[in-house]
Amino acid sequence: MSTSERKPLAALIGALLLSSVLSACHNLPARTREPLGLGTPVDAAQLAAWNIDIDADGRGLPPGSGTVAAGQRIYETRCIACHGVGGQNGIADRLAGGQGSLASKTPVRTVGSFWPYATTLFDYVRRAMPFDSPQSLSPDEVYAVSAYVLHLNGLLPADGRLDAASLPRIVMPNRDGFKVDDRPDVVGTRCLKDCVPGS
Question: Which CATH class is domain 55-177?
Fold first, then answer.
């Protein structure tokens, strides 16, 4: 048999094999998914412990409160090693100062100069700080540290206290310094033909 005669025969054999394999797979009984026995179901209480998001308007803030004075004590034992005295000159991000510098050639982005919402400070501290033991602070301690950092930025008096009602009412200096990214490819489907402005 010549090479040219073998090619069509090989293609026919391949097609027959593929057809029989597909037919065999089609005729297999349907299998139900059986649990693998791995993991543990999560109940609502366990899930709630991980659901710690805080919205800009304060939704999600837990009960509790903290003072500037208590926050200073916590800061000096848990935060100062990274963020420095008064929230400046540490090895980690600067927390205080920089107001009015964002439009300059050397902007200083701190909680007081850059962040738009005070609730974001609470959310970040609660979720990620201290660096060596995140989520180890109680809600009262997070309110207190947040109060102290806001005080360092001139946004809360020395005798100030924060709780779920007062924290969202603090107006940060750069609250209006951000704009909504309303590009169509960011917020929805891009209009490609016969577009109506603003749609």
Answer: mainly alpha
